[in-house]
Amino acid sequence: MEHYTKRLLNPFNGTVQVIADTEIRALSFNARDWELQFRCDSLKGVRYARIGTWCRQTGFKPYPLPPDIDVAAVEIAHSKMLGALQNAPALLVQDDTYELWLLDQTQQLPLALLASCRRQDEMSAATVRALWKAVTSNQLQLANTPEEERRSAPPVSYRVEECVKSRAGQNPRAAWFQRLPDRSAYRVQSDVVLPDCLPAEHFPEFLLREDWKSATEQALCHRYLQRLSPRLLVLQHLSHAARDRLEQMACHHALDVADYFHLYPDIADQQRMTALRVEARLRSSLLPD
Asked: Is residue 10 within 8 Å of residue 117, measured between CB atoms?
């Protein structure tokens, strides 16, 4: 069985945990509730049939199986999977080290992360346009200010996308890199001239560059990342300084921190995060049933 965590990208929307072998896989977006899927091969290609759900509290709950599935094969595969789920660690290792980055037009350096994969042979399947997407303002509950509403400004996420699009230029380009344990990266594939290896500081830890020329762009980017911070804290390769800064950015979103907390691989300031979780419990107790 393979055990791994992969980032959900473009837009970044957290991670998915995967346990899989050649016949069956289990997927979870919260590391608690898992969906089991059985691999089916046919002349039309490969598909995965949903065969049930599993969580530690209630165990396995099967779905009705399609008539073309080999029931005996499913039972053998799902029995092995249930054992793997029972013994799996709380968080699986994030090892999608091949990364496709949109490049800054001027410097030709990483601007925003578009896609990732675990093996080099998966890069060709990740057909991604050189166009970065933000999580929508509605999904993030990221509202415009009253002054922005007065002048009918577009949503924050849309404006951040436009900033990135402008910085990437009229002929946007992207490049694949393989990240190393020290977070530097080798260039794997690119249609632009780049050094064979880039140091870690050229890769934004929050998956989007934060240095912008205008104060307006800088403020927009900060607002977006600040609202996204409870989700960004699930990333497994953040430096201590970056994690500490994200925790400070997340202090205005106690309820979201409480939702994602069990997915955080590390804590920079335990006292701060405990206080946020206490605040979330108090606020939740005041919400109507």
From this structure: no
Phi, psi of 79, rounded to the nearest 5 degrees: -65, -45
Find the angle CA(4)-CA(30)-CA(133) to the nearest 5 degrees.
80
pTM, to two decimals: 0.92
Q: How many CA atoms lie within 13 A of 278 on its CB side?
A: 6
- The torsion angles phi and psi of 127, rounded to 5 degrees, stand at -80, 100
Give CA–CA dist 72/41, Å, rounded. Answer: 16
Q: Amino acid letter at 50?
A: R
Instruction: Tell me the two tokens of residue 30.
Output: 């919260």
- Answer positive or negative: Cα dihedral of 210, 241, 272, 232: positive
pLDDT in tens, the chain (289 residues): 899 999 999 999 999 999 999 999 999 999 999 999 999 887 677 888 999 999 999 999 999 988 888 888 888 888 999 999 999 998 999 999 999 999 999 989 999 999 999 998 888 877 678 899 999 999 999 999 999 999 999 999 999 999 999 999 999 999 999 999 999 999 887 666 666 889 999 999 999 999 999 999 999 999 999 999 999 999 999 999 999 999 999 999 999 999 999 999 999 999 999 999 999 999 888 777 6
- CA nearest to 201, candidates 193, 209, 189: 209
**Which alpha helices (DSSP H) does the chain contain, by range?**
71-87, 137-140, 146-150, 156-168, 215-232, 240-249, 254-260, 270-286
User: Beta strands 197-198 and 2-7: pairing type?
Assistant: unpaired
